[in-house]
Specification:
With 282 residues, the protein is α/β, with parallel strands linked by helices. 44% of the residues lie in helices and 16% in strands. It has eleven helices and ten strands. The protein has helices at residues 17-27, 49-65, 76-90, 100-110, 122-127, 129-136, 151-156, 163-173, 195-207, 223-237, 259-268, and strands spanning 8-12, 33-37, 70-73, 95-98, 115-120, 142-147, 183-186, 219-221, 250-254, 275-277. α3 links the parallel β3 and β4 (95-98). The longest helix is centred in the first third of the chain and has 17 residues, at 49-65. The chain binds D-glutamic acid (DGL). D-glutamic acid is lined by residues 12-13, 16, 42-45, 75-77, 121, 124, 152, 188-190.
Length: 282
């Protein structure tokens, strides 16, 4: 098999990265995908940098053993904690991509001089990685960041479309930190799964008199398509695109079985789901 036919490895703590995998499948239907959800260790966002790094290295070993040509870290927390380390570790054996750089490039091109909000896990927000990278591009963007640590575990628990979730979203998004923003970066790959709830919050807020933000002018920035486009650009540039006519295969691995993972994967990938259990610690 030529290198171009080798799979693209994608990983996250759980279902969040499926939002990225879905966008990749849509944009690059001929590519073979291997998805790893580290469900045994989720949520990543509350773990130490060292812990996330050690999980990421184990997953990278697994993906390299499957001959992945690319390892796409479909998780902001692991991108923040492990990208540099994985790049060094993997070396020339595979390309390593994260979900933060494509979003930073997107925001810098479109929002110079504006206020942008960012929500994400504690790991992502406390690492300050978005701010550092955005500031480095000198576009005079003010980033207003807020950690929203309850959201990813609630999504994994299947709490989407639930009153409790709506209340938690309201609590977080009404925080003064996020006032007067033009766009909100969904800085966790789980959050596109509750995009409706976030939109509903801004719609309801608009109906009240003292709204500080207007949904008509607030854009929710979801990284999945942006990342998929960036991946395609990289594959084209490096001559790694799979030019096979056939539809690519997708395989899913999880380190611990969760119903929510299976349900979301089934919903997103309307194909016969090949879901395997791969405990990372054995
Ligand atoms: N989806 C991940 C992220 O983008 C991780 C969420 C979590 O496991 O805490 O940060």
């Amino acid at each position: 098999m030529s290198k171009t036919q080798n799979p693209i490895g994608i990983f996250d703590s759980g279902t969040g990265g499926l939002t990225v995998a879905k966008a990749v499948r849509k944009l690059l239907p001929n590519e073979n995908l291997i998805y790893f959800g580290d469900t045994a260790h989720l949520p990543y966002g509350d773990k130490s940098t060292e812990a996330i790094q050690s999980y990421s290295l184990k997953i990278a070993n697994f993906l390299m053993a499957q001959n992945c040509k690319v390892i796409l870290i479909a998780c902001n927390s692991a991108s923040a904690a492990s990208y540099k380390l994985l790049k060094e570790y993997v070396g020339s054996k595979a390309r390593v991509m994260n979900v933060i750089d494509p979003m930073v490039a997107h925001v810098s091109e479109r929002y110079a001089g504006k206020n942008i909000g960012l929500i994400g896990t504690k790991q992502t927000i406390n690492s300050n990685v978005y701010k550092k990278k955005i500031d480095d591009l000198n576009q005079n963007i003010t980033l207003k960041s807020l950690a929203t640590p309850l959201l990813a575990p609630m999504i994994e628990e299947g709490f989407a479309q639930n009153k409790i979730l709506a209340n938690v979203v309201e609590q977080y998004l009404s925080d003064v930190t996020l006032e007067n923003i033009e766009a909100l970066i969904l800085g966790c790959t789980h959050y596109p799964l509750i995009k409706n709830e976030i939109e509903n919050f801004y719609k309801n807020q608009n109906l009240t008199n003292n709204a500080t933000n207007n949904i008509e002018s607030i854009t929710l920035l979801d990284s999945s398509e942006i990342v998929a486009k960036s991946l395609r650009g990289m594959l084209e540039m490096e001559d790694l695109l799979n030019r096979n006519e056939q539809k690519g295969e997708s395989k899913f691995y999880i380190s611990d079985y969760t119903q929510s993972f299976e349900a979301t994967a089934q919903l997103f990938f309307d194909e016969n789901l090949h879901l395997a259990h791969y405990p990372l610690w054995e």
